[in-house]
Amino acid sequence: MKTLRAPAIVEFLRSNYLFPLALALAVVAALMAINELGFRQANEAALHASEAQRKRATIGLLLQQMLDAETSQRGYLLTGQKRYLEPYNVAAGSVTITLDKLRTEYLAEPKSLQAFANLSRAISRKMGEMDVSIKLRDVSFDAEKWLAVLETGVGNAQMDIVRASATELLGAATAEMTDNFKKIHSSLDLSRIGIALTALLGVFAFYQYLRKTREVERLAQREKMSLASEAKRLDALVHERTDALTELATHLQTVQEKERELLARELHDELGAMLTAAKLDIARTKGSLPPGSDKAIARLAHLNETINEVVKLKRRIIEDLRPSSLSNLGLTAALEVLARDYRERSEIAVTLNVEDVELSDEAELTIFRLVQESLTNVTKYAKASEVVITLHEYSGHVEVSVSDNGQGFDVSARTASTHGLTGMRHRIGALRGNLTVNSSPQTGTRIEAVIPKVAAIAT
Questions:
Q1: Smallest Cα–Cα separation from 170: which of 209, 116, 223?
Q2: Is 415 left (phi over 0), alpha (psi -120 to 50) or beta?
Q3: Rounded to whole angstroms, how far apart are CA atoms 439 and 448?
Q4: pTM score, two decimals?
Q5: Residue pair 398/391 in contact by the 8 Å Cβ criterion
Q6: Quick check: 374 pLDDT over 70?
Q7: Using alpha carbons only, how large is the chain's radius of gyration in Å?
Q8: What number is the average pLDDT over the span 137-160?
Q9: Which residues contact 391 (CB under 8 A, 6 or more apart)?
Q10: Fewer C-beta neighbours within 10 Å, C or N terminus of the chain?
Q11: pLDDT digits (tens, 9 = 90+) for 204-245
């Protein structure tokens, strides 16, 4: 089955998610553009509608003010009472202000500027006509004069022009409002359609995203299964190589022990025979010397002592190669002999706390080598003054330990001494046991091995 590795997966994601991502970005951009366009159109139309409404309100206010002025003027003409002029005066001032305000709003509109000019002229003439009639009423008590002004109909004609011009301007403002309201509705419709289309595109982009996500999940699951299969294969390969190396190491140790045993036997038989023959020759030579050969006798005695030292060295080498005490006397006695010889050679106090255990020959040899290697390391590295060796049998296992009060070491650091520990760990592991090393600088070292009885008991 073809699998995709990390770079291929990244490239797959990049190529397959590019379209949904681009589509999503386009949808977002389109939604923002539609909303912005609709907002600007609606805002502009609302502003124009507001301006048209304001024009309508101003024109209505202007007509109201003209009506107030005309009503006040007629009341004064009929009664002659000054109190009727107060609304006229207020309306006359307000009309000027309102007209100026309306003028500023129509200066930028050429289409309605003519109608406004007509309105402005009519208002000016109407206000002039009303002002003339009021002045005539003030200076003359003859009603015929100011009635004559009224009867001319100029004021009514100008008022008709005012109404007509105002109606025209109101119509234009109303049309402008209607047009702007239509624009607002159009922008709202555009936004609604745009949002609907954008939503559809968003749903499509989301569908594409989900489809690609499912595809990526399937790809990841396939990759996971492939990696699990590869890991399982590598794990089996590691176990196979580990078992092979363990078997090889066990074989090498077995061969080493056999070679040691053979060498010890050769030293014991051949070298022992030669040394014995040499001692016999010395004895015969000494017995055949004539009286007065003191110098020769002394040399022979010295040679005999030398041979005795060689014999001791031979025995020590043989015990190191293959302890005869282990084969002849058992593990407990062999450990006692090992501790005694070590105490004599190193002058380090050795405390032995062991008990008889029933083990196979392989297990006894493994424990003996463990203690032997531990004592060798104490001599080389520990700088200790005391060593404690323990061997105890429990219901399900046998426990052996070697402790010293030396300088200790960092267990995590790999040094030359760790090779010996590796050999110990392999020997114990071959018996399905467990070896632990507890040490730190200036706290001494404790090497402890636990061997299950299932693997260590004699069969």
A1: 116
A2: beta
A3: 11
A4: 0.47
A5: yes
A6: yes
A7: 62
A8: 63
A9: 331, 332, 335, 353, 354, 355, 357, 367, 398, 399, 400
A10: C
A11: 877 877 887 888 788 888 888 888 888 988 988 888 887 777
